[in-house]
Design brief:
Helix content is 68%, strand content 6%. By secondary structure, the protein is mainly α.
Length: 178
């Protein structure tokens, strides 16, 4: 029998959840988002019920400012949403739990934030150097055009996949991989 100073043992799923939250946070930096943002996202996608900011702060040991900044960023990405609970003054938040919708949301947001600006630079460089007919200038122009075409192709594929229903996309991917 545990004494009053011994914390209660967590259920196996809770230990696994803590590990997931920690690892999701670590992966976030590889994806171009900060650790806390990824941890809040992981906490909410695994939460059985919507959570308020204070719960997230306590669970992740983060400041109110850090929590609020990252919550607003996740809302901006479309990965979490505000939930109004009747009779409650606190704001509650929940994450999109449908994996396909989450993937599409992240893909669209990364396209908007990363690929669209990169494509604009490639187009500008190709346009500015289209008169180059010889040597390194021509080589640079050709390289910019090839990169532009590749990125445009990738974006079209991504847009096509994003417009598909989950089952159709899986069938398409399986045909592509076999």
């Amino acid at each position: 029998m545990p004494n009053e100073t011994t914390p209660p043992k967590r259920a196996d799923w809770e230990s696994s959840r803590e590990e997931f939250i920690a690892q999701w946070g670590a992966l976030g930096s590889h994806w171009g988002i900060n650790r806390t943002m990824a941890q809040i996202h992981a906490l909410l996608i695994t939460a059985p019920e919507p959570m308020h900011t204070e719960e997230m702060m306590e669970r992740l040991h983060i400041s109110r400012g850090n929590a609020n900044t990252n919550i607003r960023e996740l809302i901006g990405w479309g990965l979490i949403r505000l939930v109004v609970k009747k009779g409650e003054r606190r704001e509650y938040f929940e994450a999109e739990k449908d994996v396909w919708k989450m993937f599409i949301t992240i893909a669209k947001e990364r396209k908007r934030r990363e690929l669209d600006p990169a494509l604009a630079v490639l187009r500008q460089c190709a346009e500015q150097t289209k008169g180059e007919n010889t040597g390194p200038g021509k080589d640079f122009h050709v390289q910019m055009k090839e990169l532009q075409e590749f990125v445009e192709f990738g974006m079209k594929v991504s847009d096509t996949v994003a417009s598909m229903k989950h089952a159709s996309a899986l069938q398409w991917a399986m045909r592509l991989l076999s």
